[in-house]
Design a protein that fits this description.
Structural class: alpha+beta
Order of helices and strands: HEEEEEEHEEEHHHHHHHH
Distance between the termini: 37 Å
Helix content: 55-70%
Number of domains: 2
Strand order of the largest sheet: 4-3-7-8-9
Strand content: 15-25%
Number of helices: 10
Radius of gyration: 29 Å
Amino acid sequence: MEKFLNKWEILITIIISITSIFLAIKANEMTKIQTEVARNSSLPNIQVVEKNLINEKTGKTDDSIIQISNLNGRLNNYESRIVTFLKCSYLDNKNNVYEEEIPIFNYYIIGRQSGNTEGILEEKITGKNSNKIKKMMEKILQYNDSDSSLYVEIESYLCVSYIDILGEKHRIYYLTDVFESKLITEKEGQNKFEIYDKLFSLNEGIDPNREEEIDIQGLINKIYEVSNLNIEKVVEKNEIQNKGMIDAMTEIIGVFLASILAHVLWIVQERRRNKESKSHAASILYYDLKSIEGYLVGERSSVNLRYSSEWQQMVAGCSFLKDEQIKELYNIYDEVYNYNYFYKLKEDKKEAVIKEDIPQYKALKNVFVNESEDNTKYAEILKELRVHIMVSNMYVDKKKRKTS
């Protein structure tokens, strides 16, 4: 009996230890989730806008400026760097085609940081360099003939880095021109900066700050030189050499194993999480829309419109919605975003905000308040979301009863 009791005590101790480890793991996972939610809710919303500055006297483009703003969220240690290329397409008199990117050294030569953590963070200005490039483009039109032709356009790549409230560093990249500024992948951004730095070290580019006019033939010579360098392969080769074959193989094996593990976990958990994620997305989307509706019904509210910046993820999570309903939701949030943008512009200028003067205000009223075709579509979306939330809640309650 004594031996039996001793064995039983050992078994109980093992069970208690395993249970403690399990609870500790779950508590750690919960802490990580809470930390991630807190971090995501306070991440900055970076906006990059490039535009031409118009001379009021002449009515012509006088300069080019990039404005980097933080619409909301917290950040520290803000830094940025920008590189600019002339994207050239050249057809010579032998019908050989050259597609090359030629760096423009120090194109955005003026940088002004505001020191703020919200609103406009920094402005980058070409300091009349845009006019020199514009004159060069006019000369190119005169240069082109039946035997050869040259076409150029400007593209800039911007890197913005900052530290969030948890001390983690983020680095995001943009492709920007006067028509559009868009996010690009970190790999693509790093590649462009490495190409620029390599060509800068070789002095293979043009510098508008050193000369009043850019020579067309000199630019063509640069196209030939950069083409002969095959710079992208040079950069790629340097990356492989720096990394080393052992590190490269380790990374490949790690990615392969991680992919297998992730796929297995996805198969096991996907069915259970699918219903939960749809219900969660539908619930957030429903109450977000009701919040916007409440703002518009109140009318006299002087506070800027609040809404979730994660609406794209919410809409994507509601796969039960029809295509036309998803399109309508995108239209709604486009109007909300533009409304907030104009509202904030007036606030930044210290002007009194009259909501009725903002063009998007009437459009939003037609969707959320007034009787209209858009309002009918909105009501149908709300009904669809309510039904899905109720069905999901019934499923959860039924599951809980079975468990009990």
